[in-house]
Amino acid sequence: MCANPITAIIVGGGHRSFTYAELALKCPDKLKIVGIADPNPYRCEKARKMFGFPAENCFSNAQELALVPKFADAVINGTMDHQHVETAIPLLEAGYDMLLEKPFAVNMEELEKLVGTVEKYGNKVMICHVLRYTPFYLAIKKRVLAGEIGDVISINMFEHVSYHHASTSYVRGKWGRKEECKTSMLLAKCCHDLDIMMWMMSGDKPKTVSSCGSIFQFKPEMAPEGAGTKCLVDCPHVDSCIYSAKRIYIDHPDRWEFYVWSALEDLENATIEDKINLLKGDSPYGKCIYKSGNDVVDHQSVMVNFESGATGTHNMIAGAARPMRRIEIVGTKGEIYGEFENNDIHILKINPDPDKEFDEEVVNLAAFANTCGHGGGDLALAEDFVNYIRGGEPSVSCTSIFDSVAGHKTVFLADMSRENSSAAMKY
Fold this sequence. Notes:
The chain is α/β, with parallel strands linked by helices.
């Protein structure tokens, strides 16, 4: 057991920050949380009680924290996407290393500014590309690295965002309006996926990027006839619409609770009546999904042409019956494919022997996954961050800010292509 755990301060006391900080409770020899910066007094007190640090280590924001002498090794930055750069830079200048939630920047200018700051001060900054740490994607990466399917010719990826996740996060919720969240749907939801694509391509840089997409279903003209503006107040379809706030949130009160019921978090035991009244009021989660004022796409396709001549595609569709991530990689000697949710990967290798066509191996990784977030990736990422800060050998999954640049740039170029109806953007 290490006598000196890495010390860290939470900046932005939301769901993701607390998820990574749980390592301090499970493995106190590895991580110790010693402070928080958040404008919400309830969340500051929650962190103080959970991790046992003094009240003087609570700050209202990152700028206030940066003004006091450095008192921890690192920061866990889980602020909202558009706040990442403005909160990260003063703390990097103060000498902190950082675990920074994705996306680390919301445009190319921010990307260059933050990367430049890290280069200047020499901080260790790791980006939370948590899918790299899941047994599913890690097993595929190791097979590709071992050359089992030869040189990669094509990588095709798919993400189906479930109807209730799309409703909660990308239509009614925090990431439904670009003016507020400053991110596109592709950046907020799929920068994980584009990062996985870049990771699997092992340094084969993109050459051009093209994309198209739109709002297909979550718009006023798609609302049922006679639909109201608030599901529980004035809509005759409250018991039949598949996107009814009653059916999605009241009938499933524990699903996405950290988003939907955040306005009630200071109540010790919020009742179902409290939740109904919230949805009847000003909560965005009570609005008709077709009249929510959302402006981010609900489906988008991306195509990447790599310098080697290999190609990659990613297709995102929001409003699917079930969540699904699928990957297919075809190489010169075989192929690998699988679905993240069922933890199966199929490895096919060309075999021209008599009575043969190919050899197939099916690997189920369910035994290696666990019930922690992102198939066990959340805890593994936090542990790898501690190792990274301590100067240990980086894992194959470790994503420094420099490793994350290619995926972010690909997203930015894809959105530029989509918005300008351009055939392709040069990388």
